[in-house]
Amino acid sequence: MPETHTHPVHVRPAVLADDAALGELDRATWSTLHAVTPRPQPPYEPFFDERHRPESILVAEAGEDGGGPGPAGYLRLVPPTPLACNTHVRQIQGLAVAEWARGRGVARTLLRAAFAAARADGANRMTLRVLGHNAPARALYESEGFVVEGVLPGEFFLHGRYVDDVMMGRSLTP
C-alpha cells in the first residue's frame, strides 16, 4: 500500500505580504461553479483593496507533497453591513481552496476557524450566499450547520442560463 502523507492545516489572519499569493490562488480557483464576475484578465488588480482588507481574510496553510507550507485556501469574513443593528452577524463573502489542497479538509477547517473568529468578535450568527448549482459548496455548508433561508430564483444570468442565488445562515450559539 502506498504511503500517504497528511499535512496539518493551519489557519491564520492574512497579512499584506499575502497579496500576490492570494491573488494567484483566487485566479487559479476561478470557476463558473461560483463566480458571478468574468474570469480575471491581466493586468491583474491587487488582491487587497479598500473593500478587501487583510483583516477580513483568514488564510489556510498546508504543505504540498514534497514542499513546505503555503496558502491552501482563504475565507473572507465581514460584517454584512455597516449598521449597528446587525453587528451580531458575520458574512462569508469568499471561500477558495487550491486544487492541490482539495479533499484535505481545508474548507471545513476555514469554516470552523471563521466560526471561532466571529464568536470571539461578538457575533452570534453567520450568513453566506452561494449559487444554486454549486452542490459541493452547499453540501459542505449544510454539513456545518447552515440552512437555506431564502432563494432568489434566476438572480444571475451566467453562461447562457439563469442561476439561483441561495442565502444560507446558521447560529453561532451553542
Structural write-up:
This protein is α+β, with helices and mostly antiparallel strands. Helix content is 20%, strand content 34%. A seven-stranded mixed sheet has the order 1-2-3-4-5-7-6, sandwiched between helices. The longest helix has 15 residues, at 106-120. 24% of the residues are buried. Residues 1-5 have low confidence and may be disordered.
Topology:
Elements: E1 10-13, H1 19-28, E2 57-63, E3 69-78, E4 89-97, H2 106-120, E5 125-131, H3 135-143, E6 147-158, E7 161-171
Parallel strand pairs: 4-5
Antiparallel strand pairs: 1-2, 2-3, 3-4, 5-7, 6-7
Short account of what is shown:
By secondary structure, this protein is an alpha+beta fold. The protein contains three helices and seven strands; from the N terminus they run βαβββαβαββ. The N terminus is likely disordered.
> Which class best fits the helix and strand makeup?
alpha+beta
Q: How are helices and strands ordered from N to C?
A: EHEEEHEHEE
Output the radius of gyration. 17 Å
Described by strand count, sense and barrel closure, the largest sheet is: 7 strands, mixed
Helix percent reads 10-25%
Uncertain spans: 1-5
Helix segment count? 3
Number of strands: 7
Strands of the widest sheet, in order across it, are 1-2-3-4-5-7-6
> What percentage of amino acids are in beta strands?
25-35%
Distance between the termini: 42 Å
- Overall 3D shape: globular
Average residue-wise pLDDT: 93
Task: Name the features.
7 strands, 7-stranded mixed β-sheet, 20% helix, disordered N terminus, 34% strand, 174 residues, single chain, alpha+beta
